[in-house]
Specification:
Layout lengths: L8 E7 L5 H6 L5 E6 L4 E7 L11 H13 L7 E5 L3 E8 L2 E4 L2 H10 L11 E3 L1
Antiparallel strand pairs: 1-2, 1-5, 2-3, 3-4, 5-6, 6-7
């Protein structure tokens, strides 16, 4: 998968429990994470963890939209990492105005693990 253009399809990830500490340390507060695979087997991930407690970014899906926007618009950001794919699990896709969560139990577990369960989406299909 290559970097998508605006409206294009991107993967939605959560970190594995066994992820490297350097990866886990960056992804907190129920981060919304989107990205794409690289030819060397690594993954480029854009994320939003709402470090400054912006109320408009409380919901997980709003964090995903923010991350997706940064990625497709090539916005400068420090909320980006490249890591080995073994650190992450794909839980869904974002494309255009829709997020499709294909592994809701794993997403909910990630949100619980980061004390962000109250930011969970209402269901697996989310429209902007």
């Amino acid at each position: 998968m290559e970097r998508p253009n605006p409206g294009g399809r991107a993967a939605v990830f959560v970190p594995k429990v066994s992820a490297e500490d350097a990866v886990k340390d960056m992804l907190k507060n129920g981060s919304g994470m989107v990205g794409f695979g690289n030819s060397d087997g690594s993954v480029t991930v854009y994320f939003e963890n709402n470090r400054f407690n912006d109320s408009s970014l409380h919901k997980w899906e709003n964090k995903v939209w923010k991350s997706y926007g940064r990625m497709v618009e090539l916005s400068p950001t420090v909320n980006k990492l490249v890591c080995d794919a073994s650190n992450l699990t794909q839980v869904g896709f974002v494309q255009g105005p829709e997020i499709e969560v294909r592994d809701m139990p794993l997403l909910l577990e990630w949100l619980e693990r980061t004390n962000a369960a109250d930011s969970a989406p209402e269901g697996p299909l989310i429209h902007s």
